[in-house]
Every structure is written in C-alpha cells, then in structure tokens.
TrEMBL record:
This is SDR family oxidoreductase. SUPFAM superfamilies: NAD(P)-binding Rossmann-fold domains. The lineage of its organism: Bacteria, Pseudomonadati, Bacteroidota, Sphingobacteriia, Sphingobacteriales. InterPro entries: NAD(P)-bd_dom_sf (IPR036291), Sc_DH/Rdtase_CS (IPR020904), SDR_fam (IPR002347). Belongs to the short-chain dehydrogenases/reductases (SDR) family. Keywords: Oxidoreductase. GO terms for molecular function: oxidoreductase activity.
Length: 264
C-alpha cells in the first residue's frame, strides 16, 4: 500500500479546539496549528483582554459541567464539530508539603482541573468525531504523572497519572472508530505558571530564584539538555502528532523533557 499521501503536516480545512489556549503552551499550540492551516478555537476562563489571541474565543471554566456543555453547544452551532481536540487546561493549584497538607478540597480541585475537565469535554465532542469516523485528541499531561514529587506536587502528579491512564484506555476504545488519542507530557517549560512556581518556591524557602531553580532540578535528577523547553517546542510535537504524518500513532504518551525522566 502506498501511504505517501498521508505524509504531510498540513492541516488545511481542519477544525481545532485548544483549551487553555490564550497563554503558555496552549497559545503556542494554537498559533502553530493555525500556521499549519487549521481553523482554531481557543478557550479559557477569561478573555486575555489584550489582543493576545487571533483565534475564535470561547470563555469557559471547564471544571464546571454546565459550562463544558454550553461550550460544546456553541462549537456544534458555529463549526458543526471539530477534527482536533487539544485538552491543555490544567495546572498545579495545591500547596507543597505532602499528604498532611492536602485537604479533600485540594484533591478535588486538582482532579477537577487536570482530569475531569478533559473527560467531560471528550464526552461532549466525541459523538461527532465518531459519526465522521475521524479525529485526534491530545491530552496535555506532565512528566510529574510518571515522576511525582511528594513535597511539591503530590495531588497534581496523581491527577496527571490518572489522565495518562484514562487517555490510554480511551485510545484503545476508539482505535477502530477512526479516532486517535495521544498524550504529551512536557517537563519543565518556560511558561508564566512555571516562573511563578519557581518564584513561590524561592520565597517560601528564603533563597534566590537561581538557587530555587537549581534545587528543583536536583529533585528531578536534572535536565540533561541543561535548559527548560520553550512552549513552541511542545507545540511542534503536538502539530506532528495531530497531522496525517502521524496516522499510525495512538495510545502513546510522549515525554518532551530534555531527557529528564530517569526511566526507559
């Protein structure tokens, strides 16, 4: 069989939704997909208000089921569905310190933001993908899901590990329906939330930012490449994975971490 026609990263005519798409990794992904020809929709809790997005914008808090439903309805009305879904919404919202510092509310918050938001949105948009027998879903996870740090990100890491497992199960279920599901797990990436995390750690430990960054890297075993990723580097990987060139890839978790994970 000749598959040469599938060897392209052009996305002309594809409809793509990027959640959390107004800043950081999400914005880089949205911009990358648009440059490849996709019609891009982005969502966030609030509009950036600074002209920071050129894409169709939907305001939605994806931890609220009713707002996920409303967003799904708007997408169906305006675009008749999507071809590419990037579940990028997520973040570390809980305090450091291990199990004794984490309340039920902390655990619930991390699971809502990092796991259930993606599950809800998938459920809303998948019927249309199944009907057209094509589509790609990318779950943006984290290397923390495979390398949790008990004193820094326990609940976040657990929620991302759950997202990894869900993504794999969904990929298996949908493989015969023309839909691919993949996970991308960035390591330390140069984004505003990462910079704030380092700043907060420095403040809480009474050290400067440079030393805080060194200590955080030491806990993870360091980054062999010696630097954080740029958001655009994560976006390039996502672009390839959603493209026809990756047509035989599904169910895999791709770490993009400069070699930091100490496992094969």
């Amino acid at each position: 069989m000749n598959n040469k026609q599938n060897q392209t990263t052009d996305l002309t005519g594809k409809r793509a939704l990027v959640t959390g798409g107004t800043k950081g990794i999400g914005k880089a992904i949205a911009d990358e997909l648009a440059r490849a020809g996709a019609q891009v929709i982005v969502s966030a809790r609030n509009h950036p208000g600074d002209g920071n997005t050129e894409h169709y914008f939907i305001a939605a808090d994806l931890t609220k089921p009713e707002q996920v439903t409303k967003m799904g309805q708007e997408i169906m009305e305006q675009f008749q569905g999507i071809d590419i879904l990037i579940n990028n919404v997520g973040g570390l919202t809980t305090p450091p310190g291990g199990f004794s510092t984490l309340t039920d509310e902390h655990w619930e918050s991390e699971l809502q933001l990092n796991l259930l938001s993606a599950i809800r949105l998938d459920k809303i948009l998948l019927p249309q993908m199944i009907e057209q027998q094509s589509g790609v879903i990318i779950h943006i996870s984290s290397v923390s899901g495979r390398q949790p740090l008990w004193n820094l990100n326990m609940a976040y890491a657990v929620s991302k590990a759950a997202l990894n497992s869900y993504s794999k199960a969904l990929a298996t279920e949908l493989a015969t329906k023309g839909i691919r599901v993949l996970t991308v797990s960035p390591g330390a990436t140069k984004t505003p939330p990462m910079e704030k995390f380092i700043q907060d750690y420095a403040t809480s430990t009474g050290i400067n930012i440079e030393e805080a960054f060194k200590q955080l890297l030491a806990q993870t075993g360091g980054i062999p490449m010696g630097r954080m990723a740029e958001p655009e580097e994560v976006a390039s990987l996502v672009h390839f994975l959603v493209s026809p060139s990756a047509a035989y890839l599904t169910g895999t978790n791709y770490a993009i971490d400069g070699g930091s994970l100490p496992v094969v």
